[in-house]
Amino acid sequence: MIAFLRGTIAEALPQSIVMDVSGVGYEVLVPLSTYDRINPVVGQQATLKTHLHIRENMQVLYGFATDEERDIFRLLIERVSGIGPATAIAILSGMNVTSFKSAVVSGDVQSIARAKGVGKKTAERIVLELKDKIGLASTWEAQQEGTTTQAAADAELALIALGFKQTESRKAIKALLKENPQAGTDELIRGALRHMS
Asked: How many helices (H) and strands (E) does the chain have?
């Protein structure tokens, strides 16, 4: 799998960037939030976190400015029934990660439904499945209230996006935070992976 690309921007359109990486041009589909954040200019250096989506008749590379954006994208396509990459990109184009998390926590279906191609029923399913089935909303709510750290919340989201259960992820992260309360996201993810394997 291609985890990231670092290279020169060869072409830039609002939802598609071509990156020249050592003479190879990679077309990467991006949400508007990523496009706005990196503000791509032809010839400038950039790094994109990526997700390679393989279907029977095509391979599509999606790019994101941050790990958090990529984790939300993966969470949507892997954990919410009926959500494909195009819908996940539309959601991230319509709202930033913080707004999305807040909408899920508060059950704000209207905000999610404003994304292009996302109706009320789809937005309701997103809130229901992320809030009740996976329980991520409780993590995001704790983050908003200040009872958990940003690093812990990001690590938990990353582990869930990788396919681990929330309860196992949270337990491993709590144990690591007892040993080192100042641990960063990467350190928590690596430690939790060692702990759970």
From this structure: 10, 5
